[in-house]
Amino acid sequence: MISFYAEEVKHPPINTKICKQWIKKIITGFGYKVGSISIIFCSDVFLLEYNRKYLQHDYFTDIITFNYNTNATLSGDLFISVDMVKSNAATYNVQELVEFRRVIIHGILHLLNFNDHAEDEITEMRKQELRALEVYDSIVGANI
Questions:
Q1: pTM, whole model, 2 decimals?
Q2: CA 61, 67, 71: angle at the middle one, nearest 5?
């Protein structure tokens, strides 16, 4: 089950029905089952506190992913800073909803064991994000 929540912010205007369909398609495409996935939209301050408390990182970020996977079932919590996503969208000159989708799938890719620490991992993560965004576009096209 995939659920969306908002903490200390207004829920972004994402189509949750299509987003759930998309996430399921990506996860099953990698051979996994969908478990319990929570996507929590929050403020910069809220996410900074989580970053400090659980990861001992003292900096702002756009997403923190907590992985609760068991065997071939993906489960986890994705905490997404609405403030940072909006800032990133302006910085990279992309639509906010596109940046929200990129950050959501970034978290899902972390649950799928993709990392982004080394240069080659970052390159692969970006490749998978772009591939997943194309899948989203194909789902939207099919629902028009």
A1: 0.93
A2: 155
Alpha carbons 44 and 83: distance in angstroms, whole number: 6
- Using one digit for the tens of pLDDT, what is the confidence trace for 56-89? 888 888 999 999 999 999 999 999 999 999 999 9
Q: Which of 49-53, 79-83, 91-95, 101-105 has the lowest mean pLDDT?
A: 49-53
Place of tokens 């923190």: 64
Provide the token pair at 56: 């001992």
Condensed to tens digits (0 to 9), the pLDDT of residues 100-126 reads: 999 999 999 999 999 998 999 999 999
Tell me how far apart the alpha carbons of residues 21 and 26 are, in angstroms, rounded to a whole number.
9
Tell me, what DSSP letter sits at residue 117?
A: S
Give the count of beta carbons closer than 10 Å to the beta carbon of residue 44: 17
Which CATH number, 3.20.20.80, 2.60.40.10, 2.40.50.140, 3.40.390.30, labels domain 2-142?
3.40.390.30
Ramachandran class of 75: left when φ > 0, alpha when ψ lies in -120 to 50, beta otherwise: beta
Q: CA nearest 90: which of 64, 46, 80, 98? A: 98
